[in-house]
Each structure stands twice: as structure tokens, then as C-alpha cells.
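Tutorial handout. Part one gives the primary structure; part two gives the three-dimensional structure as C-alpha cells.
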Amino acid sequence: MKKYSLPLPAAGLGKEPRPHKVLALAAGLAAGAALALAGPASPAAHAASGTLGTAAADSGRYFGTAVAAGKLGDSTYSTILDREFNMITPENEMKWDTTEPSRGNFNFGPADQIVGHAVAHGQRMRGHTLVWHSQLPGWVGSIRDANTLRSVMDNHITTEMSHFKGRIYAWDVVNEAFADGGSGQHRSSVFQDVLGNGFIEEAFRTARNADPSAKLCYNDYNIENWTDAKTQGVYSMVRDFKSRGVPIDCVGFQSHFGTGGPPASFQTTLSNFAALGVDVQITELDIAQAPASAYANTVRACMNVARCTGITVWGIRDSDSWRTGENPLLFDAGGNKKPAYDAALSALGGSTGNPGGIVTGTVYSLVDVAAGRALDVPGGQTANGTPLQVWDSHGGANQQWRASQNSDGSYTLTNVGSGRVLDEPGGQTGNGTRMEIWDANGGANQHWRATRNGDGSYTLTNVASGRALEVPAGQNGNGSPVQIWDSNGGANQHWTLT
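Part two.
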């Protein structure tokens, strides 16, 4: 795989070369425009149950991978691709150095090979990438006249998008335009240096004219942590674009993480961008050494944000990864599923014996959707019978709950601070019964069924009473009690697990 030197966008990963990624998540391949822009799954993609693609499709999302045209002849590679993934991103085949190596001379052959494979197997495409400072032919980089560069850029966008029109779900129109570090400003590039700040808007407006049906995305790395200056710079740009009617439909978060996985604020970042009125997508996911919990947390962050429309991993097997020696993907070099695969599938709600999508052994904070506050054991109170409440989330051990799956498919939730479990008092099953903590005893009153809701949250139903965990309607303040009540689908009975 081609490499270029850029700081790796990951929490705790430091800096190292990272590969040029092509077409991030191509979502819309089809024999015609109708197939290309069709819904989340096709009959071919649903041929096998319990796969990443089908599990994601159950919530209207996709699960994709980056693909190299030269590996499609590898039967192990292509078998996994067609079984597991319903979205494809070309690794390098849609980038400028491949598609227009000399001015006005276009080569779409390698990309057409990938698109043709996707069409044949009912997978969608995501185009990556149209305007990027890297993998750029020397003839483009040497242009110093603004009118010439603007004409070249607009022609490249229009010609490539027109070639694939109707077959691409979303395009990464501009890739990695913001600088690393604390400036929050654009990086130096031929486009920035010759055309100025307006080149990004110019690219998006040109792209909309070229293919009005494709979603238009901005894609970048190291924008996953909410407080980082680079994240804030991209956020300000998207907010400005939306306020002025500049056509932007989505933001891609590359998500190249270290062994610790996503930053604690990752879901907040996704939510805040989505609140601007754009879709958010995880576009190039890989995690050093592929810890199961880190993959689960990343997938769960997407599932908890309604406008997070899909996830793409950057490669299929560890041997296909640009991160040599880091084994960051879901399949080993032999094509075998790793523990991270099961964790990702479970977090999607897939059929791994874990229907709620909750990963055994993982510690969560449970936040009530209506109240926006976390399930809390009052500070310093750890005894049996301590009543539960909601309180502003602060990450303390008294707000952390370790999930373990029971033989009946339900879960026991153990509070980290007290070592005691979420408990419905024995024999008390009526509406309004307040929940407490108690020593684990394996009883049905300590078992909770988890059901995924359409907004990515969960309804937690007690096995003994058959009633749902809730914050009483209209009681949203700190210290509000937590009780059980007949399930009614209200936001006060929806809990996000983060």
C-alpha cells in the first residue's frame, strides 16, 4: 500500500506514516442509479445472518471496508468481503494520482474494477477522495496561477463524479484540509496556498452540481476528541457552511486509534456534529492490537448517535493493513475472526449470543435519555438497599456499571464503586418500585433484558417484574429516583450505554 507521512490520528498513537486511503466508504454501487442509491442492504448482503453488514443494516446503517483492486483475486479476501461488508471504499483507486495522472487524461480502470465488484455483489460505494493535498500528481502541485488551479480542480471533480454518477452514495469531496496542532486552521497545500480558504467551499459547490444525488462529505483524522483545536476548526467550518447554504451532507471521522481506542468524548463529538444537521460516519477505523473493548466502544458510540450512518474499517485482514505489525483489524492474517470481531458485531446488535449489543465485561455509564443524567449510587453509600438516582455524569466509579451476560440472555449490572448489582427489591414488582443495589444472588430480580431502540439507546426490562427501568416522567433533576414502570417507549425509559 502506498504510504505518506502524516501524524496518525489516534488517541495515544503518536506519529508515524499512514497510508493514502482511497475512496472512503463508497455507498451506492449498483447496476444502475436505483441500486446504487438503494437502502441499507441488498439480498446479496443479507445472504448470511449474523454478519457485520447485516447487523448494521438492521438499524439502517452500513458496515464497510477499504478494498484494493489488486486483492480481489484472493479468494480468502473476497469471500470475507462479500460475506461481511455492505459498503466499499477503494484504498487508492479513486485518488488524483491514479485518476488523472496528467492533465485531462483520466484513468478510471482500477476504480471501475472495484465498482464492478460491488455492483455484482449488492454492495454500495463511497467515493474517496476528490481534493486532497497528498497523492497529488506533480503537475497539479506545480500550478501557481489561481484561475488555472481553480479550473483544474473543478474539472477534476466534475469529470470523476460524472463518470461514477448514480453509483456513489457519498463522496469525500475534500480530505484532510486542516492542520495538525493547536491552530485550528487549514494546512498549507497547493489548494490553500493558491486559492485561499475558499477552495473547500468551491469544491463542495462544484460537487453538488456534478452529482446532486450523492452525499457530500468532509473527511479528516484527529478530529475525534471534542476539545482539540483541529476538531473545533472543522466544526466551525461545518457550522458556517450549514448557516450559509454551502452544500455539505456529512463529516467523516477516520478513527485511527491506539490501543486505548476512541477518546472519552468521541460520542459527544459525533453528537455535536450531527446536531449541525449533517450525517457522521466512521470512515477509516483501525485500532492498534484490536482490543475487543476498544472496538465495542467505537461501534457503540456510532450506534448511540442516530445520524451516525455507518462504519468502515481500513482493511479486512491484519496482513492487509497499512499499520504493519500492529494487527489493528477484525480478521487475522489467515482470515479468522478475532475477539474484536465478536465485540463489534455484538455492539451492532448482531447474533453472537448477545442480542442486546452489550459486551460482557465492559464497564458502562448508563445515561437516561430524557434526563440526560447518569444512573448513580449516591456518593459514599455502598450498602445493600441503597436507593438509586440519576445525577450529572462525572465518570466516577459510583456511576460505572460492569455488564455480564446471563444464560437466559439477560444482563447483570454490577456497580464498580460498591461491588453490588442493580436490583429490583425481592417480591416488589409494582409500578413505581424504586431500584437499589444489593449483593449479587443470581435472582431474576437482578436480571435485565436489553432491547435496542431506534435511537440507539436501550430499554432495560427486569426479568422478574417485566417492567422497564425509568426515571419518573417529568423528574429530570439531580437526585431524581430510578424506578420500574410498565414499558411505554418514552425517552425516560431509554438509556444510552457509553
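Part three, for discussion. Residues 1-49, 352-356 have pLDDT under 50 and may be disordered. The two ends are 35 Å apart (CA to CA).
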